[in-house]
Amino acid sequence: MLGLNTRESLRHVVAQVRREQPCVDLLLCTGDLSQDGSVASYEAFRQLTGEIAAPTRWLAGNHDEARLMAEVAPELVQSVTDVGRWRVVMLNSAVPGATHGLLAQDQLSILDDALATAGERYCLVCCHHQPVDVGCAWIAPIGLRNADQLLQRLRSHPQVKALLWGHIHQPWDERRDGLRLLATPSTCIQFAAGSEAFKVSEEQPGYRWLRLHADGRLETGVQRATDFTVQLDFDSPGY
């Protein structure tokens, strides 16, 4: 993509995680795991991320083929995972053939059931598409179309501490009505923050780490693959 070898950038991000995070309880991959949606690409992604010794969960993004993801790794596309005092809920917001996101009724039902049965667990909810305006005009139309339905549900359940997504290829961290809203950088090309039209940044690829404490506190930050050199070729095929 724009001259950047995305498999190699992912390899460097995985190596960065292994250096910095010696004990990982759960690895969350929040969509656009592949560009061509092929079986070979998902097998390669699984092999590369498998170097991180942790249970893993996958979400489909707008570039993915959800059916093939489930065929390649059915155990990785589970919607609900409990880790200690926390419940992690993965919601598929991908719309076949479209760039924007939408949580279909079956996904909203998964969320309703997961929150209703969480008991005393705190909850982290994940999807692919952004549910809020992140200040990039060109990204706004390809966000989550029924974000209000999602946010209303989350606000009515105080045990939900955070909502995490991918899609925007840049970090995001804010609080609204007691809910932490988080996005992660991409493992390949980064989009420039605050851009009106499509624009990429020459920041390094990276990942977001999270510490989910037993008392409901959440600590998080973003780390970049410091040993990866970003060299973009704007005359090559783009996004």
Automatic annotation (TrEMBL):
Q: Which domain of life is it from?
A: Bacteria
The cross-references to InterPro entries, in alphabetical order and at most eight, read:
Calcineurin-like_PHP, CNP_phosphodiesterase-III, GpdQ/CpdA-like, Metallo-depent_PP-like
Stated EC number for the protein is: 3.1.4.53
Top-level EC class as recorded in UniProt: hydrolase
Q: What region holds the Calcineurin-like phosphoesterase domain?
A: 8-171
Q: Name one GO molecular function term.
A: 3',5'-cyclic-AMP phosphodiesterase activity
UniProt KW keywords: Hydrolase, Iron, Metal-binding
Transmembrane domains' residue ranges: none
Belongs to which family? Belongs to the cyclic nucleotide phosphodiesterase class-III family.
Checking NCBIfam families in the record gives: PRK11148.1
Question: What is the name of the protein in this document?
Answer: 3',5'-cyclic-AMP phosphodiesterase
Q: Which organism is it from?
A: Pseudomonas promysalinigenes
Q: Recite the lineage of the species.
A: Bacteria, Pseudomonadati, Pseudomonadota, Gammaproteobacteria, Pseudomonadales
Annotated gene? cpdA
